[in-house]
Write a structure and sequence with these properties.
alpha+beta; Nuclear Transport Factor 2, Chain: A; 188 residues; six-stranded mixed beta sheet; 6 strands; 41% strand
């Protein structure tokens, strides 16, 4: 393998490791797996998330409280670009994100309004992350800035109900994602 090929392979591995953290964050929020969300950040990291600015532990608590009124949640990432610092210790990642949520507004929600019942919200934003590679820990977010593009609210009457016999997403660890592994092929 040439030095150029080796460098390119290393970059692919770094990008994959960072993308796994980006996806874990979204999955953690959508499934209310707060330990998974926290694992995406280094100790001492910072997050600027619109109405929230603080450290990872404060972020998890803010998300936990805010998501008590979020009935469904789906974060969709795209256009992920990653570039490394010259010394390879830091990386800057930009990820486009569309967040789709059904929110119960009875308790009030800054994104959805207050007291109008259940609404769907769509938020278009970008995660601009500085990742750091720390030995024995790996690539984690050191600093996140969420840049917002637009937000939309829609009445739930505009959406079609799901057949109750379909497998439904759940916002906790009873979601099918967390199901035990099958013990044999017959169970797959």
């Amino acid at each position: 393998m040439t030095p150029e090929e080796s460098a390119e392979l290393n970059l692919v591995l770094v990008e994959r490791q960072i993308q796994k953290v980006l996806v874990a964050y979204c999955q953690g929020v959508d499934r209310r797996d707060w330990a998974l969300v926290r694992s995406c950040y280094h100790d001492g990291a910072s997050d600027s998330h619109g109405a929230f600015v603080g450290d990872p532990d404060e972020l998890v608590e803010w998300l936990r409280v805010r998501h008590e009124s979020v009935m469904t949640s789906m974060h969709v990432l795209s256009n992920v670009s990653i570039r490394l610092s010259d010394d390879g210790r830091l990386a800057r990642a930009e990820s486009y994100c569309i967040s789709l949520q059904e929110v119960d507004t009875v308790g009030g929600d800054p994104f959805a309004g207050e007291g109008v019942g259940s609404v769907f919200t769509t938020v278009a934003c970008r995660y601009i992350d500085t990742f750091e590679n720390v030995p024995a820990v790996g690539w984690r977010i050191r600093k996140r800035d969420v840049a917002f593009d637009w937000m939309r609210r829609a009445d739930t009457a505009d959406f079609v109900g799901l057949d109750p016999s379909w497998t439904r997403s759940r916002r906790d660890q009873t979601d099918p994602l967390y199901a035990p592994w099958p013990s044999d092929r017959a169970e797959i």
